[in-house]
Task: inverse folding
């Protein structure tokens, strides 16, 4: 697999190995970690354009970033072209370099509201949303699936619509909505989408080791890959794939993450985030299961730090 820089609109990504948006995880600290290990682009988790418009505090917190984040990409979720345009152009997103549009979320409430993967069933509206976001003057990307039902996939047609509407990149999660997060990714659907457009196509889904990352590129011909759940378990996947020197242990990383999260958010956010992150990291380590209950009972950062030392030293 070739590790390349990747041009997306006017941006030059340092590598074609991307970190996926993951609700509850890809806040500022995790994105900084992934960039440090070689990821070419990281995204905020999905941020509802409607909630932002109505000044929802929790949603605004999802936009937290600093000047140290190398490339700032926000993912917006929404079904109204007018509201998406208003938010894409709003001062809230002023500091962001790229806007990604969520057209893949399978969650029933989101789908019923005509957002996320529901947009795959309404190409005129999906197209209007892309054109609306482009009015921000920033590069715009789309993250979608291969379709809604497993027996009726149309990733190539959808990718063509994205390109025609002005998108600068499209990421395809190689599963239909009905497949949710399970099953082998549909390599052929991604390959067909790649062949159908000239904007960069990023392949996502089911990458749980370096060999699967290579397989994804080989079988789809995609311009890059996007790692999701596996990066929580093994963030070193980015340095492994990009050959970026790392020289740190998982304990170093978790302690750094705790410090950075505590500097950016309050203690309760930091505790919740760190418990989830440590729990994913424990999947890779034998004999750590016994600490799981303790991990979720830690009531202060000091206690958490002691437990992390006990588990990962
Ligand atoms: C906990 C969780 C949260 C997610 N949050 C988002 C999100 O905010 N935006 C998005 O586009 N996809 C989201 N996804 C989907 C992932 O980005 C990715 O497409 C999916 O997990 C498939 O990749 P994987 O099989 O390598 O994990 C989420 C997935 C999970 C498991």
Result:
């Amino acid at each position: 697999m070739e590790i390349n820089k990747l041009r997306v609109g006017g941006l030059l990504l340092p590598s074609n190995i991307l970190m996926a948006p993951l609700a509850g995880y890809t806040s500022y600290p995790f994105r900084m970690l992934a960039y440090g290990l070689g990821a070419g682009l990281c995204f905020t988790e999905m941020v509802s354009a409607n909630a932002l418009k109505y000044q929802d505090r929790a949603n605004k917190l999802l936009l937290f970033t600093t000047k140290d984040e190398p490339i700032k990409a926000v993912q917006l979720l929404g079904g109204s072209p007018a509201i998406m345009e208003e938010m894409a152009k709003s001062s809230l997103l002023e500091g962001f370099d790229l806007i990604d549009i969520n057209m893949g979320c399978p969650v029933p409430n989101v789908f019923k509201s005509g957002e996320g993967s529901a947009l795959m069933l309404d190409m005129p509206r999906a197209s209007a949303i892309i054109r609306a976001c482009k009015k921000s003057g920033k590069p715009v990307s789309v993250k979608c699936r291969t379709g809604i039902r497993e027996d009726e996939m149309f990733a190539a047609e959808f990718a063509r619509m994205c390109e025609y509407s002005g998108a600068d990149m499209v990421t395809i999660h190689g599963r239909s909505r009905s497949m949710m997060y399970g099953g082998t990714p549909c390599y052929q659907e991604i390959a067909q989408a790649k062949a159908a457009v000239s904007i960069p196509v990023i392949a996502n889904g089911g990458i749980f080791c370096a060999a699967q990352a290579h397989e994804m590129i080989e079988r789809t011909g995609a311009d890059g890959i996007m790692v999701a759940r596996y990066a929580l378990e093994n963030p070193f996947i980015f340095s492994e794939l990009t050959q970026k020197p790392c020289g740190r242990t998982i304990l170093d990383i978790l302690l750094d993450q705790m410090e950075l999260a505590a500097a950016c958010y309050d203690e309760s956010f930091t505790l919740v985030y760190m418990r989830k992150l440590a729990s994913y990291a424990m999947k890779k380590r034998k004999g750590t299961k016994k600490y799981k209950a303790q991990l979720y009972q830690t009531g202060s950062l000091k206690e958490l730090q002691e437990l992390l030392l006990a588990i990962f030293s």
In short: The longest strand covers residues 43-48. Residues 20-24, 45-46, 75, 102, 104-105, 143, 173, 181, 204-207, 228-230 surround flavin mononucleotide (CB under 6 Å). The two ends are 34 Å apart (CA to CA).
